[in-house]
Design brief:
Number of helices of chain B: 7
CATH topology of the largest domain in chain B: Rossmann fold
Helix content of chain A: 25-40%
Number of strands of chain A: 10
Distance between the termini of chain B: 44 Å
Largest sheet of chain A: 6 strands, mixed
Oligomer: heterodimer
Radius of gyration of chain B: 24 Å
Number of domains of chain A: 2
Order of helices and strands of chain B: EHHHEEHEHEHEHEEEEEEEEEEEEEEEEE
CATH architecture of the largest domain in chain A: 3-Layer(aba) Sandwich
CATH class of the largest domain in chain B: Alpha Beta
Largest interface: A-B, 68 and 86 residues
Radius of gyration of chain A: 19 Å
Bound molecules: guanosine-5'-diphosphate, magnesium ion
Strand content of chain A: 15-25%
Largest sheet of chain B: 8 strands, antiparallel
């Protein structure tokens, strides 16, 4: 008899495709949160698989902090164009200009928290009832408690102590008017799974995931890309370094790592031998022990 | 993750397991130990819990802090909700559902158990079998978790004595024989000190069995999925309506059981229309055969009316189409189940409504006795109930297929999931 077991990557893929199809079936107007980072790129790829040969079924929603790496934006635009996906951009700058969000001050000011304001506004404007995100449970301890279908009340809050039980593959997406859902198809993937899948499927990713020379500086043990977004302190000096990014977010809170990896294989090797979590280079999580839980309760991704 | 081999990932499979045990039996410590000894903990994670342990004046680095993720959990030192954890060895990737043990969290345990291949049941060596052990074992049996691993923990506190372990093993076996559990393993461990978790114990020469990690890596899981009854619940109909794919009509879904091949004669339920499988598609690939739990798109030779909620099955092996079901329900909501109440019901990709016809009995989950004179079904109760549905559903017994034999009930006013059911 033939062996009818799937490899772990195939099983994860199958589960994620199942979740994406449930979204299409259960919601009126879903969108895929697209940051240009590897997790959202994997979600994009999975959604293409889930609905082929139909064209890409959801609009891509990018919450643009205005502090992005140029490479990410170029990548985003080309991807949307190539696959005929509609692109919705919510601008944090605009939220600030309209006085709905207030810019942080100081050396470690970031627009990360402000993203929530813009996201919620965009959801309302386009009447989105589900936002698909690439968050993974292995990323962070509050996320370890997330459901695939995560219910948000009309104030878009996450109530971690009172989540709907999620059993078998029976996802309950029922909601009242004004409420919506966050859906996380790759909940069960780890950083390693994502990289292996990108390698296995030969998925295109932005160039800054590979090693390159960049002007950087060191602060509190984190390597930052030098840009107009982060003002230098007097003692900090800019040097050319050979780096790549492990995650891609807003410039002000994404740390780089020293790396020689030029191919996907080399990235996988590197991830396999790394001793720090990828969010260890995310400054936004370090603000307090419950930083992520608090942001999520307020409606963050 | 230094031990991780990047070459092996194409052949690794996936094991999902859940942990059960009462408060303080050492679940979180055990999971922390598995993660730590398999080198799945990163330096920054370790540093964070080390600092917290120190701040609290604890003697050891408290590995339990790795899994207790919510603020309230860390403050109260308890596990409230299911937390999912991940680790991999060169052989397998593991998904752990760490569930709380208190009776008021039975619903979380049921949630964690619903997708598990294996359950680790912890018993405190000093206490032996207690009510909770019975309850957790009953739930594992009810949810048909294929493999049960009983870990007698805190062996260090009973001087690693063999007779303590043997007694617990015998007591447990006597109890489990009354239940539907086929594959049981027993291990004496110390989660805190690490004995028999990843490394064999130096303190228990008398134990000749495997370590927990060895078991997890080697338990056979091929047969955990039903490979004999081909079932395909249609999730979504794919109609590109483009020039290139003008007539394409594909049925998207995840195979819920068995194997489908190109050319197979199939029947669509509940309508009963028949056809043949024309192709099995996934993006640019066309497959000769596909099996559970693959997500694919089927196309059929004939044009028949098929929509979400229908099930495609092989003509020579059909499930039951019915409006009357008998179910073991685990009640998940604070509000009681309403006798004669109406609920929304989800079964595979099908949404119907149902009415409670009869509450037959409630189970005392600590003693397994049937309670026939109390029909109040409250949070965490388990009961046998008959329902009538507003439209036919296509079912198998849960014992035969967890996907086509499970349902959830939803309160139509609040939209909350209130019941989890296994079809008998
Ligand atoms: N001596 C000893 N103590 C243990 C062992 N396993 C866990 N503990 C302790 O038992 C207490 C409860 O453990 P915890 O993992 O939080 O239990 P949980 O409530 O089941 O998650 C903690 O103080 C642990 O350090 C063991 O094998 N030996
Ligand atoms: Mg615990």
């Amino acid at each position: 008899m033939k062996n009818h077991t799937l490899t772990h990557l195939k099983e994860l893929e199958s589960e994620s495709i199942f979740v994406l199809r449930e979204v299409a079936a259960q919601f009126e107007k879903p969108a895929l949160l697209f940051s240009g980072g590897k997790d959202s790129i994997v979600c994009f790829h999975l959604a293409r698989k889930a609905f082929a040969p139909s064209k890409f079924p959801f609009p891509l929603l990018h919450v643009d902090t205005g502090h992005n790496f140029e490479e990410t934006i170029t990548f985003r635009d080309e991807l949307a164009k190539k696959y005929g996906a509609q692109l919705i951009v919510g601008s944090v700058q605009q939220s600030i200009d309209e006085g709905k969000a207030i810019e942080e001050r100081g050396f470690s000011a970031s627009r990360n928290v402000l993203q929530t304001v813009t996201l919620l506004e965009t959801i309302e404007k386009y009447k989105l009832d589900a936002c698909i995100g690439g968050a993974r449970r292995d990323e962070e301890k509050a996320r370890a408690k997330e459901r695939f279908f995560s219910h948000r009340d009309e104030f878009v809050q996450w109530d971690p102590k009172n989540q709907r039980p999620e059993l078998w593959n029976l996802f309950n997406g029922r909601k009242h008017v004004g409420e919506h859902f966050r859906v996380f198809p790759i909940s069960n993937w780890t950083e390693m799974d994502v990289w292996q899948y990108i390698l296995q499927e030969n998925i295109e990713i932005p160039s800054i995931y590979f090693t390159h020379e960049r002007e950087c500086f060191l602060r509190d043990g984190v390597i930052y890309a030098h840009s107009h977004v982060i003002p230098l302190k007097p003692n900090e000096k800019v040097e050319k370094m050979q780096v790549r990014f492990r995650t891609i977010g807003d410039i002000s809170c994404t740390g780089a790592v020293l790396s020689k990896a030029t191919t996907l294989e080399e990235i996988v090797e590197e991830v396999a031998s790394t001793r720090v979590t990828e969010r260890g280079s995310r400054i936004d999580d370090k603000r307090s022990e419950a930083a992520m839980e608090d942001r999520k309760k307020a409606g963050y991704f | 993750m230094t031990e991780f081999s990047t070459a092996g990932y194409l052949t690794m499979d996936l094991l999902r397991f859940t942990t059960a045990g009462s408060v303080d039996d050492g679940k979180s410590t055990l999971i922390g130990r598995l993660l730590y000894d398999s080198k799945s903990i990163f330096e920054d994670q370790y540093e964070a819990i080390r600092a917290t342990s120190e701040k609290r004046g604890e003697e050891y680095v408290n590995l339990a802090l790795l899994t207790d993720g919510l603020r309230a959990e860390r403050e109260q030192g308890i596990t409230i909700d299911v937390a999912y954890r991940y680790f991999a060895t060169p052989k397998r990737k593991f998904i752990i559902a760490d569930t709380p043990g208190h009776i008021q969290y039975t619903r979380n345990m049921v949630t964690g158990a619903s997708t598990a291949n294996a359950a680790i049941i912890l018993i405190d060596a000093r206490k032996g079998l207690i009510e909770q052990t019975m309850r957790h074992t009953y739930i594992a049996s009810l949810l048909r978790i294929p493999h049960v691993i009983v870990c007698v923990n805190k062996m260090d506190l009973v001087d690693f004595k063999e007779d303590v372990f043997e007694k617990i093993k015998n007591d447990y076996t006597a109890f489990a024989n009354k239940l539907e559990i086929s594959d049981v393993y027993f291990l004496p461990i110390s989660a805190l000190k690490g004995d028999n978790v990843v490394d064999p114990s130096k303190n228990m020469d008398w134990y000749k069995g495997n370590t927990l990690m060895y078991l997890l890596e080697n338990i056979k899981i091929e047969n955990d999925i039903n490979h004999s009854d081909a079932r395909f619940p249609v999730q979504y109909v794919i109609r590109p309506m483009s020039n290139e794919h003008h007539d394409y009509r594909g049925y998207a879904g995840r195979i819920a059981g068995g194997v489908f091949k190109k050319g197979d004669a199939v029947t669509v339920l509940p309508s009963g229309h028949t056809s043949k499988i024309k192709s099995i598609d996934l993006l640019d690939n066309s497959l000769e055969e596909a099996f559970a739990p693959m997500s694919v798109t089927l196309t059929l030779e004939n044009e028949i009316d098929i929509s979400r909620g229908d099930m495609i099955v092989k003509t020579d092996n059909q499930p039951i189409v019915t409006q009357d079901i008998e179910v073991m329900i685990c009640w998940l909501a604070d509000k009681q189940l309403q006798a004669n109440g109406k609920y929304a019901l989800k079964h595979t990709s099908k949404d119907v409504r149902c009415i409670v016809k009869d509450i037959q009995y409630k189970v005392n989950i600590n003693t397994l006795e049937k309670i026939e004179d109390d029909k109040n079904i409250n949070l965490n109760d388990i009961a046998r109930i008959s329902f009538k549905t507003t439209a036919p559903i296509t079912i198998d017994k849960y014992s035969r297929n967890r996907n086509t034999g499970s349902i959830i009930l939803i309160d139509e006013a609040t939209n909350v999931t209130v019941g989890a059911g296994m079809i008998i």
